[in-house]
């Protein structure tokens, strides 16, 4: 399996990172995408990926948009010389926390979509309470051949259909799927079907049941995979095969 969204370079893992990666591999999570959230954090993600033989992304999270470099394309260009970097992001809009002004979030999102387009890289999107504005920007910036994932998808079936059918996006399914309150996400996953879904943790955040509230880690992808298998009446093996194939194709992992 592939954990398509892991912040294993986060300081939450400083005391036992070797063991965390080892546990992931022992659990069948052989590959991970270490996701960066700003320039410095993306450096950390890349260094972690190089050290452990993982993949990484580089980008600016909407929370950090207010501090993003003016010329984003130049600032991030050096990252794309490293074969570990397989995506741009995470980028997007977060109107729940509004940690950056919405205008800055939108500017930085558009800039990263253009980098994704020019570099022919998939984009990793973070969305919260911003569906309408995000889709409006997608309609302006998205072109045929572009690829991406809505990471930690928490919308409903209608939103899922828009992402998948209009833009060909994939949905990243994480621990939220196992939360009692997440019926809309389960309905969406069922409506969309396994071929458009990928597994992720977003660790150290959002641990699935039965680890909810604890530090999340890539090995826990197995809990989400089991919940997804249950939901879609598939074998665990089928869930692993489908999601791995989808992730390998999206991120060009071969
Ligand atoms: Zn994340």
What features would you describe in this structure?
The protein has helices at 17-26, 39-52, 72-76, 102-119, 131-141, 157-167, 183-192, 221-232, 236-250; strands at 2-6, 31-35, 55-58, 85-94, 123-128, 148-150, 170-173, 197-199. It has 254 residues and is an alpha/beta fold. The protein has an 8-stranded parallel β-sheet. Helix 6 (157-167) runs parallel beside helix 7 and helix 8 packs across helix 9. It is globular. The model has no long low-confidence stretch (mean pLDDT 97). Zinc ion (ZN) is lined by residues 5, 7, 35, 90, 202.
Distance between the termini: 14 Å
| Mean pLDDT across all amino acids | 97
Q: Main sheet, how many strands, which sense, barrel?
A: 8 strands, parallel
- DSSP, total strands: 8
Estimate what percentage of residues fall within beta strands: 15-25%
Oligomer: single chain
Low-confidence stretches: none
Structural class: alpha/beta
Topology (elements, then pairings):
Blueprint: E1 2-6, H1 17-26, E2 31-35, H2 39-52, E3 55-58, H3 72-76, E4 85-94, H4 102-119, E5 123-128, H5 131-141, E6 148-150, H6 157-167, E7 170-173, H7 183-192, E8 197-199, H8 221-232, H9 236-250
Parallel strand pairs: 1-2, 2-3, 3-4, 4-5, 5-6, 6-7, 7-8
Helix pairs in contact: 6-7, 8-9
The protein binds zinc ion (ZN).
Zinc ion binds next to loops.
Summarize the structure.
This protein is of the alpha/beta class.
Note the main attributes of this structure:
single chain; 254 residues; alpha/beta; TIM Barrel; 42% helix; 16% strand; globular; binds zinc ion
């Amino acid at each position: 399996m592939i954990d398509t969204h892991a912040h294993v370079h986060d300081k939450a893992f400083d005391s036992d990172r070797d063991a965390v990666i080892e546990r992931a591999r022992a659990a069948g999570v052989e590959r991970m995408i270490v996701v960066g959230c700003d320039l410095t954090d993306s450096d950390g993600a890349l260094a972690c990926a190089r050290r452990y033989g993982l993949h990484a992304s580089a980008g600016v999270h909407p929370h950090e948009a207010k501090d993003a470099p003016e010329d984003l394309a130049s600032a991030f260009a050096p990252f794309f010389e490293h074969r570990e970097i397989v995506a741009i992001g995470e980028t997007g809009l977060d109107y729940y926390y509004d940690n950056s002004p919405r205008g800055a979030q939108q500017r930085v999102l558009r800039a990263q979509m253009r980098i994704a387009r020019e570099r022919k890289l998939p984009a990793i999107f973070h969305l919260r309470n911003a569906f309408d504005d995000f889709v409006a920007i997608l309609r302006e910036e998205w072109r045929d051949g572009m690829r991406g994932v809505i990471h930690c998808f928490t919308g409903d079936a209608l939103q899922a259909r828009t992402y998948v059918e209009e833009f060909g996006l994939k949905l990243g399914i994480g621990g939220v799927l196992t939360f009692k309150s997440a019926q809309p996400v389960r309905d969406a996953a069922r409506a969309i079907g396994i071929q458009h879904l990928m597994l992720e943790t977003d660790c150290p955040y959002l641990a699935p049941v039965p680890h909810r509230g604890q530090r999340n880690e890539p090995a826990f992808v197995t809990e989400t995979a089991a919940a997804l298998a249950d939901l879609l009446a598939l074998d665990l093996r089928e869930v692993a095969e489908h999601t791995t194939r989808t992730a390998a194709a999206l991120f060009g992992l071969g």
